[in-house]
Amino acid sequence: MGLEEYQRKRNFEETSEPKGEVKPSDGKIYVIQKHQARRLHYDLRLEMDGVLKSWAVPKTPPLEKGVKRLAVQVEDHPIDYANFEGVIPEGHYGAGTVEIWDKGTYTLKKRDENKIVFEIHGQKLKGEYCLLRFKDDKNWLFFKTK
Ligand code: MN
Questions:
Q1: How many CB atoms lie within 10 A of CB 19?
Q2: How far is the CA of 55 from the centre of ligand 1 (A)?
Q3: Over 90: is that where the pLDDT of 103 sits?
Q4: Per-domain residue ranges for the chain?
Q5: pTM reported for the whole predicted model
Q6: pLDDT tens figures, 63-77
Q7: Distance from residue 26's CA to the centre of ligand 1 (Å)
């Protein structure tokens, strides 16, 4: 995907979000940002392919097995975004407050077009999780498997 969509949606003279760039990386950042926008949601981000692959989760991320959450894939974010906290001004894309809700690293176990299995090493989320795409679009299910 790259960062074209991310950068097109934002005015970096008005928001304090990082403009960012695609970086060669083999890091394994995991972060969830609580985003109090028009609707509260949680943004799950995983460092992959030089960017943060991103999903918006409308409800509290699953802390235990048996809870399945919708996770809507959104535009790739720059790796620098993993540290972003702040207020996106009114009238701008994503207007509202962003705070880091959980952060750590992850270990990739399996990845194909429709399924990502990974172990999360966070403060709140720990253990094996799965992202499973359904109906070949932006909608995934996010749940704990172990
Ligand atoms: Mn968001």
A1: 12
A2: 8
A3: yes
A4: 4-144
A5: 0.95
A6: 999 999 999 999 999
A7: 24
